Write a sequence for this structure.
């Protein structure tokens, strides 16, 4: 089955700096890669996603890049703010008719004022 | 739309008791997923349904766990008998059902088994 590795497990940055979280996946048939943000005590929420026919997608301060050859994708947050502090999860869908997402273990991002 | 609705939000029960968690997916979503989240194991998929039919239950820990989806607007996850190691946050999520769509998660049920 699909395996998703996520790094780093924790990341601390100063407000205004950039943050990068990286994920690798194992199934070359995977074609959908969402990112979720989970604030303390709350539900994971979808913040951005990318599909395999696109190499990069941007939404204001967040962007995701995908390298299908290397089977890795990354989340980039620019001009970080304290409210960006949360756990971020990457995920990958399997190919074929299997609809389930496999999640990485998560990255705890702390933005220090 | 009210989103994915889970109940109860918190449940404290004694070891050996039966626990039932409930979920109402977003109207029109064809797929429903049950996840368990712990610090040690992260987000684990327990089971998912497509068009009310269980597709993959390989993540269900053991026979003590069972899930049903009697109709498109309701699902239950039951643990009988419950054990302390079942303590976790249980999330239900729904999606449009294709493999190119993300999930919408419910608020979760925090289960504590003492």
């Amino acid at each position: 089955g699909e395996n998703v590795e996520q790094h780093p497990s924790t990341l601390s940055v100063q407000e205004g700096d950039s943050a990068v979280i990286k994920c690798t996946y194992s199934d070359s048939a995977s074609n959908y890669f969402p990112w979720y943000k989970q604030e303390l005590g709350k539900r994971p929420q979808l913040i951005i996603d990318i599909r395999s026919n696109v190499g990069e997608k941007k939404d204001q301060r967040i962007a995701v890049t995908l390298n299908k050859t290397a089977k890795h994708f990354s989340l980039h947050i620019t001009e970080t703010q304290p409210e960006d502090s949360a756990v971020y999860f990457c995920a990958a869908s399997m190919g074929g008719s299997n609809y389930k997402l496999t999640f990485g273990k998560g990255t705890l991002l702390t933005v220090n004022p | 739309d009210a989103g994915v609705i889970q109940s109860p939000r918190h449940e404290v029960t004694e070891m050996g008791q039966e626990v039932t968690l409930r979920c109402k997916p977003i109207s029109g979503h064809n797929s429903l997923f049950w996840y368990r989240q712990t610090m040690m194991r992260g987000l684990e998929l327990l089971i998912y349904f497509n068009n009310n039919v269980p597709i993959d239950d390989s993540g269900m820990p053991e026979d003590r766990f069972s899930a049903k989806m009697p109709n498109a607007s309701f699902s239950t996850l039951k643990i009988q008998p419950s054990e302390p190691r079942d303590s976790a946050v249980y999330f239900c999520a729904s999606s449009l059902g294709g493999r190119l769509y993300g999930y919408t998660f419910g608020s979760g049920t925090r289960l504590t088994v003492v």
In short: Chain B touches chain A through 23 residues (CB under 8 Å). The longest strand of chain B covers residues 42-50.
